[in-house]
Design the sequence.
């Protein structure tokens, strides 16, 4: 099956399960006969460091790294990390962003010294991102994950959200199958629920600004 | 939330690395996800990390002995081999260091079995002493060593280029660009190794190892493990003096034969488009070259070299005869550029060679599609369709005020507590900290910025020895347990023998934490969970000749200060062992036992904002509430190590219960 090319830049904080998110997408591609590749980040930037994964889908793509201005979407599991990689978004590309902010320790260190300082917020990030695209959706992925029954399903909420895009080339069924195969048996229900709730949330806030699947 | 691709362990790693998943990811046990696909019988397709594809290639080649030491970007090779080992009959060990790992493979291959090792670039530095000799003696069974460079020094102390090991040691070197090619090359490498009786290096870089893609699964035709009889004349693998001179002549002849073979090998790919512009590239450079040409809409001829030693000189000569300009796309040193320049002298003296020497590329940092687009754009005169400069300028403007997020110690990390206690204990004490390779290396980064020197695995002791000769200050050396076993012991032997006045702090967190908590010689198990004899640090050190050993628990962050201070004021050499399991490792074990990991909270009625829980501690779970400037603990991040609770003078940090 020849899929349309699609590159998504995934960002987050070490420990959020980003690499596994790309692995589930990749496995879904393998079972659907779609060519996919990723550039992943392992190593030093693990826990609590900034993490990114380049996910690329398309028959002709060879580079695991997305060029500047080459991402059709940024999928950010943490708000600040969406802004950190903004140069990868193609002009007018889609931003799917978790509203959760994890404050870096060096920002907290500054706040200890400067009593007037406030943390950078998801709203501020959204305002910045709005200068390069009008297609931004902010989700409370943690809240949705909690409603789905498991706070650790934040990443699957975001996966459900991006799966609504008309341009997203992986069909829903292989994605769900891949989730089922990849999560612990006892967590399958919560994860599938998180996926559907993420999808619904995206339909509510994203689909009047971006073309979504029917 | 997904079960891990690298099953038995969580991530975190450094000059070395490992898996994935946070410890918040539920673990399903071995053979989930990637590993399941990895084990499927071919033919078929799977989405695999290149490091998993390398394992798959070795399994398809019926590897019999595997021996590695973890190191990013190769660690998932070791982890995958370890995780699946109960399913197979290959012998596997996680060795004390890379040199031992390589020698273990050498011994097995001398007997006649196929053996495999993987190591990062700097690991080969340690192993290379034996590698050079092994190239002389040769092997009988196939022996393949993956050596991974780390351009950009993502998780390494240098940006070393491993390709000169090929010509320097006369060891053939293959270089894949993507996962499926890596799988095929590993199989070919075993065949070349046995045909020519030489170890073979597979050279990779971070962006090749840490690339996932669709991999074709071949047949796994495995023969049951069987020991072989030693079937060699005396001295067969002894290289010294006269035998070394004989081996040298033989290996030169062997290299010439391989060079001829590689001239027609399908591991070197020629895409001849008839263009006057050509690209010669290898490894990750190929991936960026293909995409850069697509972005610009040009169709240069491409020679992708898969055999980077010996280089296929005739193939290169034929390629450059047909073009007028060649762009050399290779990271780090101008290795191909040097050889292409030499070959062009006869083959095409008028050839325009674009590379590092013309200033189009740098020897520093890793490449990406944009770097190659820029160079090809300059050479071809075709403008990129996107104004990259404008996008980057806008991004820089938008990111003003965005706080950095460098890697830091995990919530619950015992190193954070040890460093707090050491900083307390050394207040007013002028000292130099000679540190080493491991998670604790991060202390030199923000926010602590503590640490004065770091060279290589085990170097803290030798460096400290020199410092105590030369410096006026107290000298402290700091090393982790795994790094101590790896290369720290000779440094301590030296310090004891010479009576050096230094204090060694060993951070014993029970595992090789940075790479994903692999067992080290202090554990009672090894690869695949099989039983192993644990070595006890203090027993070993006492036997070496030091009686002044102080053992503290870093979680007792207050009571540990006095013993540490007292030890530091005594004449060295003496040792402090700060012992507490890596938090990720401990949490995983707790979860296996079904124990709940609690979290703490700040009682805001009690908090008087002394920030004792933040100052010199800097846990990612603790921030300051913008509303009342009081400390705030993020429930999802707290590990409940209780160290911050011990630091608070008002007792405001309490268990979160019933929430």
Sequence:
């Amino acid at each position: 099956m020849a899929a349309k090319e699609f590159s998504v830049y995934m960002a987050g904080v070490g420990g959020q399960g980003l690499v596994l998110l790309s692995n589930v997408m990749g496995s879904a591609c393998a079972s659907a006969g779609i060519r996919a590749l990723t550039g992943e980040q392992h190593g030093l930037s693990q826990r609590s460091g900034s993490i990114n994964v380049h996910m690329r889908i398309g028959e002709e793509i060879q580079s695991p790294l997305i060029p500047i201005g080459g991402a059709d979407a940024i999928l950010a599991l943490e708000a600040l990390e969406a802004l950190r990689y903004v140069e990868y978004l193609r002009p007018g590309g889609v931003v799917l962003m978790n509203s959760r902010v994890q404050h870096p320790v060096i920002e907290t260190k500054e706040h200890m010294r400067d009593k007037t300082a406030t943390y950078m917020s998801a709203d501020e990030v959204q305002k910045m991102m709005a200068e390069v695209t009008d297609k931004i959706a902010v989700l409370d992925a943690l809240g949705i994950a909690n409603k789905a029954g498991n706070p650790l399903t934040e990443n699957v909420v975001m996966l459900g959200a991006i799966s609504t895009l008309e341009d997203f080339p992986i069909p829903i069924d292989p994605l769900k199958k891949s989730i089922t195969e990849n999560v612990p048996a006892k967590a399958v229900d919560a994860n599938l629920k998180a996926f559907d709730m993420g999808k619904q949330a995206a339909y509510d806030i994203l689909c009047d600004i971006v073309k979504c699947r029917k | 939330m997904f079960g891990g691709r690298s099953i038995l362990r969580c991530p975190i790693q450094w000059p070395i690395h490992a898996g994935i998943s946070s410890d918040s990811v539920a673990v399903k046990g071995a053979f989930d996800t990637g590993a399941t696909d990895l084990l499927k019988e071919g033919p078929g397709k799977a989405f695999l990390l290149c490091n998993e594809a390398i394992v798959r290639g070795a399994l398809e080649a019926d590897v019999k002995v595997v021996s590695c030491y973890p190191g990013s970007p190769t660690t998932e090779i070791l982890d995958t081999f370890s995780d699946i080992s109960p399913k197979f009959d290959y012998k596997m060990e996680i060795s004390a260091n890379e040199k031992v790992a390589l020698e273990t493979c050498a011994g097995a291959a001398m007997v006649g079995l196929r053996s495999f090792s993987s190591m990062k670039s700097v690991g080969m530095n340690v192993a290379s002493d034996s590698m050079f000799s092994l190239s002389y003696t040769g092997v009988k069974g196939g022996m393949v060593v993956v050596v991974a460079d780390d351009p950009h020094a993502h998780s390494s102390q240098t940006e070393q280029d491993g390709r000169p090991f090929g010509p320097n040691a006369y060891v053939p070197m293959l270089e894949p660009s993507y996962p499926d090619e890596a799988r095929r090359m590993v199989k070919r490498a075993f065949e070349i190794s046995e045909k020519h009786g030489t170890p073979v290096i597979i050279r990779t870089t971070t962006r090749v190892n840490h690339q996932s893609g669709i991999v074709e699964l071949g047949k796994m035709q495995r023969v049951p493990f069987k020991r072989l009889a030693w079937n060699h004349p005396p001295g067969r693998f002894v290289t010294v003096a006269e035998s070394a001179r004989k081996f040298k002549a033989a290996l030169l002849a062997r290299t010439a034969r391989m060079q001829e073979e590689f001239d027609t090998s399908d591991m070197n790919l020629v895409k001849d488009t008839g263009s006057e512009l050509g690209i010669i590239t290898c490894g990750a450079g190929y991936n960026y070259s293909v995409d850069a040409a697509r972005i610009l809409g040009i169709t240069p001829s491409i020679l992708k070299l898969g055999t980077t030693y010996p280089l296929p000189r005739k193939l290169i000569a034929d390629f450059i005869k047909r073009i007028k300009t060649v762009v050399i796309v290779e990271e780090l040193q101008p290795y191909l550029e040097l050889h292409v320049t030499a070959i062009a002298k006869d083959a095409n003296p008028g050839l325009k060679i674009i590379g590092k020497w013309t200033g189009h590329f740098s020897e520093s940092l890793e490449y990406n599609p944009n770097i190659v687009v820029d160079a090809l754009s300059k050479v071809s005169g075709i403008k990129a369709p996107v104004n990259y400069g404008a996008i980057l300028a806008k991004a820089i403007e938008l990111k003003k005020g965005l706080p950095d997020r460098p890697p830091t110690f995990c919530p619950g990390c015992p190193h954070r507590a040890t460093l707090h206690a050491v900083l307390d204990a050394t207040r007013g004490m002028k000292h130099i900290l000679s540190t080493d390779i491991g998670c604790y290396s991060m202390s030199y980064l923000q926010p602590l910025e503590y640490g004065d020197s770091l060279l290589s695995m085990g170097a803290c002791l030798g460096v400290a020895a020199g410092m105590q000769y030369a410096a006026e200050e107290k000298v402290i050396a700091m090393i982790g347990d795994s790094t101590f076993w790896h290369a720290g012991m000779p440094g301590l032997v030296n310090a004891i023998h010479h009576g050096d006045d230094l204090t060694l702090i060993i951070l014993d967190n029970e595992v090789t934490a940075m790479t994903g908590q692999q067992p080290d010689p202090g554990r009672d198990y090894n690869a695949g969970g099989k039983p192993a004899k644990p070595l006890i640090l203090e027993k070993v050190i006492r036997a070496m000749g030091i009686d002044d050993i102080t053992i503290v628990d870093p979680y007792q962050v207050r009571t540990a200060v006095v013993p540490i201070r007292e030890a530091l004021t005594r004449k060295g050499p003496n040792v402090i062992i700060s012992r507490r399991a890596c938090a990720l490792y401990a949490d995983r074990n707790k979860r296996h036992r079904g124990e709940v990991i609690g979290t703490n909270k700040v009682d805001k009625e009690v908090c008087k904002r002394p920030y004792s829980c933040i100052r010199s501690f800097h846990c990612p779970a603790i921030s300051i509430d913008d509303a009342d400037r009081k400390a705030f603990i993020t429930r999802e991040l707290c590990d409940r190590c209780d160290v911050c609770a011990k630091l608070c003078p008002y007792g405001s940090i309490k268990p979160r219960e019933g929430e």
